[in-house]
Amino acid sequence: MKKKKWIVSGENPRACAELSGQLGLAPLAARVLAARGIADVPDAAAYLDCSLSHLHDPFLLAGMDDAVREVRASIERGEKIAVYGDYDVDGVTATCILIRYLRAQGAECVYYIPDRLGEGYGLNEVAIRALYEDGCRLLITVDSGITAVEEVALARALGMRVIVTDHHECKNILPQAVAVINPRREGCGYPFKELAGVGVAFKLICALERGRSMESLLEKYGDIVAVGTIADVMPLTGENRVIVTNGLNRLRQTENPGLRALIRKLGLDDKPLTSNSVSFVMAPRINAAGRLGGAAVAARLFLTCDDTEAQELAEQLCELNRMRQEAENCIYEEIKARIEAQPDLVRRKSLVLWGESWHNGVIGIVASRLCDRYGVPCVLISLSGDLAKGSGRSIKGFNLYAALEHCAPLLEKYGGHELAVGLSLSRARLEEFAEAMEDFAEHASAGEEIVPSLQIDCRLAPT
User: Where does residue 80 rank: exposed (0-12), middle (13-18), buried (19+ CB within 10 A)?
Assistant: First the structure.
């Protein structure tokens, strides 16, 4: 395993003294806050406070007025509403809180979560047509839709109205929907840009329930919102910190049968529930359903009102997670053996590997493990006939999305961000793609060894 380069944050003695003196913090706590960029006393006080007063008005999100007006009108008209989500924990939790809210308002509503293996991420034509034929006239996306320009146009042409709620990076052209709610969209003055998809969906509920106390809304939905936010690895700062702190408090005494059953099944019912409990114990089980093509199991867990069904669903998720681990370890060991047999591979500045029928739902996790082990960006590709679908992970400082842009002429489709990507290409172009990736990595590193980094808050003197 490649050693990491330690990057120690600079010292800020003046800020540390102010934080210690005015907030009564221990010197070490003050140093850590300052090292993480929380150096002003008001910012640090807000960071430590986590009171609901630090949550922003949902109507500061561009498009929220139009969205609220459309949802209310649709409910009053008795129209069928579809919530279109995603198969990861963020997408499933966002779907479920909105469905629960709409049902509580007496709305006729259905949800649709695409199959990771058969459909892939985001809106697709077949699903849109099916929802229209099912009688849906308002389509609300959660944790997806911000780049679905053509798909939203199709829905409109069929006679559906669309509200997009998302948190992913926006492209230059937005979908022509009734409302597009995304804190990252250009021109949106919302103060906090790091909400998860479930956080944006929660903001829509808050706007629809204007006048109701935030405390009561978090009491009803906060446990699920916290799970989705943590699982999507969003920074626990700003509003996320407030939501997660209050949501974890709610999770400890949750009334949701599904969450209660999962907590019990995992042996967490008599232990403190923290962000680590969610991230490393609960979230992998919930995610396993979507990874293996059965995200509906996870959605049913959050939506069921029956304790017996909840217990059965929790057991199913744990079994799916066992299957996920088995598939993941099988691929990981196969690749380790291949690398040991071909030592030249570890001298490359990128790893691009492929295999027959590797499970698409787990190759991203395996790529992440290999990235950590060998300290270089890694792309794994599953082969099925002439089609090759891949998933990549990177180290801090190496922009994997930029690497795919460099390789774009060889790819049929790609997307993602600096540290994680997805792609598809023709089987015939695999070797060419691997060399193009290596060429980009070689130039990006200026011929020097790529070394992963580890951010260090501060040095401690031995005692």
Answer: middle
* Domain extents in the chain: 5-49, 58-303, 347-453
Count of beta carbons in the 10 Å neighbourhood of residue 193: 13
CB neighbours of residue 210 within 10 Å: 11
Q: How many residues does the chain have?
A: 463
- Contact status, residue 407 vs residue 437, Cβ threshold 8 Å: yes
pTM for this entry: 0.90
Please compute, for residue 121, the number of CA atoms within 13 A of its CA located in the half-sphere on the CB side. Answer: 24
- Given a contact cutoff of 8 angstroms between Cβ atoms, the answer to whether 202 and 243 are in contact is yes
Residues 192-218 pLDDT 10s: 999 999 999 999 999 999 989 999 999
DSSP 314-362: HHHHHHHHHHHHHHHHHHHHHHHHHHHH-GGGGGSSSEEEEEET--TTT
Do 5 and 451 contact (CB within 8 A), yes or no? Answer: yes
Class of domain 347-453: alpha beta
Q: Which two tokens stand for residue 91?
A: 């997408």
CATH dotted code for 58-303: 3.90.1640.30
* Greatest alpha-carbon span in the chain: 71
Q: Which residues, 6 or more positions from 73, have their beta carbon under 8 angstroms from its beta carbon?
A: none
Model pLDDT for residues 105-114, shown as the tens digit of each residue = 999 999 999 9
- 3-state SS, residue 427: helix
